[in-house]
Write a structure and sequence with these properties.
alpha+beta; single chain; seven-stranded mixed beta sheet
């Protein structure tokens, strides 16, 4: 009996696990998601559980396959995109619990900032790996987090038998084969995938982490994105509702999956004028070109992190969609706008824009938990300036507008930094939750002055993961897969009439950083 072949893209986000079923043309046939619990035991501490995440992945997989109305045996490939969170197992490869509770809280989530001091120690070394991180180590990366464990929870650190990025853990859990993606190792672990590089043991000695390679079971080789990892184990296949004929391919960080799902089809020798903007809870800005470019305050260069033949740079904002959620929660008026306050505000502010700036004297510094790019300063804090005594509802609307524009100006500042260091970006490929907001789509075009490419793919991050799943059947050529996919694109051009307003607002935004953006 012959079957049409289907692939699964799995995306493990901050709040949910999502699974999409795709045919070989990239059409999304079924999708489901399941919530993931988040544990905040202390300030700046954010934890999750691999046990909880596995339940969510299994639940979403079964429902997505059912929605697609296909037989489980027709699913021949799967891959994963995931947040760059740190999964910890003990020497028996069971969850290594960080905090007491109903779940085995064994994941330090990407946004956890407990390791700020350790990140500063790494930065102070100015060792060779810093040249691949924009010159500054982030507390969101894995070495500072493991340093924190060694310095503050030595009994836990001594019990580690496996430490890996969440996406790499899922591949290991599904197949029993432990290979780490070049995307995760290069972007989050200080591994240099260039020939004869690898781990910088001198740097590890400087930060007292020479034992981490053995303790975390870290490899000397990074696996290419889309490389076949192995077929599902009988146990994993049964729990997922699939078969052992399903091949798991090496995946990538969620932002890179979004970049592959939107930017992949446009990567070529002239791609320095494009950047993927994956904007949801946080925002990542991923550019890729054949040449290595070091950009101060922007992560990378990362060869192969997106695909072979291209070197990626990654700028980021730690809070974007989450900041807008926070603004809604911060004001009592947020509860007056129904079940979809963001949609209501988008409609209202677009109407007000027709007559000019809705709040010309009110501005927001959006870095409530620090600036990831281009300043790479985790100690910066947010600010709201220009408040007056008016109705609380009116203040709420204006603060929301100022926060939304500030997020876009943060993207503009990152683009300007990249363009000053070898890029020539004039086109944004937008995906994620911000792509569903008419207000934010317009702001990204008007506020940056760039054209915005809007993918017709309903779920570009899931699609990017599915591209990796399809790659083993196309000789591992991710770009060949991406270029053959069906979803088209639309283009939103910046409105010239909005230019003066955004220039004034952007100038005020820059003043909030006391000249540090110059």
């Amino acid at each position: 009996m012959s079957y049409t072949v289907y692939s699964l893209g799995v995306d493990i986000g901050t709040g949910s696990a999502r699974v999409g079923v795709f045919d070989d043309r990239g059409e999304l046939l079924g999708e489901a998601k399941a919530p993931i619990a988040i544990h905040r035991p202390l300030e700046h501490h954010v934890e999750q559980s691999t046990t909880d995440i596995w339940r969510a992945v299994c639940d979403a997989t079964r429902r997505a396959v059912q929605q697609a109305d296909i037989e489980p045996a027709q699913v021949k490939g799967m891959s994963v995109s995931a947040t760059c969170s740190l999964a910890l197992l003990d020497r028996q490869h069971e969850p290594l619990t960080l905090s007491p509770g109903d779940e085995s809280w064994n994941i330090i989530v990407w946004m956890d900032h407990r390791a700020t001091a350790e990140a500063s120690i790494c930065t102070a070394t100015q060792a060779a790996p810093l040249a691949n991180l924009g010159g500054v180590m982030s507390p969101e990366m894995q070495m500072p987090k493991l340093m924190w464990l060694k310095r503050n929870r030595p009994e836990l650190y001594d019990s580690i038998g496996y430490a890996g990025d969440l996406g790499d853990w899922l591949g290991y859990h599904c197949t029993g084969i432990d290979r780490r993606s070049v995307c995760t190792l290069a972007c989050k672990w200080t591994f240099d995938p260039r020939p004869n590089r690898g781990w910088d043991r001198e740097f590890l000695a400087q930060i007292d982490m020479t034992d981490v390679l053995e303790r975390a079971a870290l490899p000397d080789r990074a696996a290419a994105v889309g490389e076949p990892l192995g077929r599902l184990s009988e146990k994993a296949a049964a729990e997922l509702g699939l078969t052992t004929d399903c091949l798991f391919a090496v995946g990538m960080i969620d932002a890179y999956a979004g970049a592959m799902g939107t930017l992949g089809r446009s990567l070529d020798a002239h791609s320095a004028h494009r950047v993927a903007v994956i904007a949801g809870t946080s925002t990542c800005h991923i550019g890729a070109q054949p040449e290595r470019r070091e950009v101060p305050g922007v992560w990378g260069p990362y060869p192969g992190a997106l695909c072979d033949g291209f070197v990626a740079n990654e700028g980021g904002q730690s809070l974007t969609g989450a900041l807008l959620d926070h603004i809604v929660d911060l004001f009592s008026a947020g509860s007056e706008l129904g079940d979809d306050p963001h949609g209501a505000l988008s409609e209202l502010l677009l109407e007000r824009l027709a007559t000019g700036d809705p709040a010309p004297d009110l501005h927001v510094r959006p870095d409530f938990i620090g600036n990831r790019s281009p300043l790479a300063d985790p100690d910066i804090r947010g600010a709201i300036v220009g408040l007056t005594l008016e109705s609380p509802t009116e203040t709420f609307i204006k603060v929301y507008w100022a926060a939304a524009t500030a997020l876009v100006y943060g993207t503009r500042a990152i683009i300007e930094r990249m363009n000053a260091n070898g890029y020539a970006i004039d086109t944004l490929h937008l995906s994620g939750g911000h792509n569903r907001s008419p207000l934010l789509r317009k702001l990204y075009a008007d506020g940056t002055g760039c054209r915005v490419v809007l993918s017709a793919a309903p779920e570009p991050v899931l699609l990017g993961a599915a591209v990796a799943a399809m790659a083993p059947w196309r000789d591992g050529d991710l770009l060949a897969v991406a270029r053959a996919l069906a979803p088209g694109e639309g283009v939103l051009e910046p409105d010239p009439a909005a230019r003066d307003m955004h220039e004034k607002r952007y100038a005020a935004f820059r003043e909030l950083f006391d000249g540090r953006l110059d």
